[in-house]
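ok so for the tutorial part 2 we go from a plain amino acid sequence to predicted structure tokens. step 1 is just haveing the sequence, like this:
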Amino acid sequence: MPLPFLTADGVSDADDDGDGDEVLAHADHDRWRRPYRPGPWRVAISALLLLLSAFMLLATMIIAFAGAWSGAGICLVAALAVVASAVQTLRVGVWVSRAGLRRVGFFVTRTVKWSEIAELRTVQQPVRWLGLPRTVQGQALTMSGHDGASFAAPVLLTDHNADFLSRAEAFDRAADTVGAWADEYRPVPA
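step 2 — the prediction. this is what the tokens look like for a chain of 190 residues:
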């Protein structure tokens, strides 16, 4: 009995009827998607947070078995906050869809329609190293609005953030991919 396996692009290797009606996940441009993979620093930070939350949940169980319910509740809430932080750390970044560009931060998410963006470009400038206050010289993907209008957070990606530190080729591919989405869905000025 052959077992069907799911491949990386979400297509099953089982025998297909060949009608081609299925829409692949990457073909649906109405869904919000990150045009690049999360970097190793971002994944490592999230993994450490999840490891910490596992110990906190174990402590919650021990405290609950000891009968201190208020302490167990506080520890459970703290562990769930750490789990939520790990998930949000993985979500941080730039997401695109047919509707526009979404910059997801840890606390704030901002969505900009493609029609509001006049230009996306990669520039050399001081950038924050891993999101910390220390700045280093690097590349940043910036956006600008029409007629000189500026956005609250014009820097979308940097080559020194948690996704692209020591991965210059990945930064270039991600910047090119975001630019391609902008070229495809930004209205042509008349």
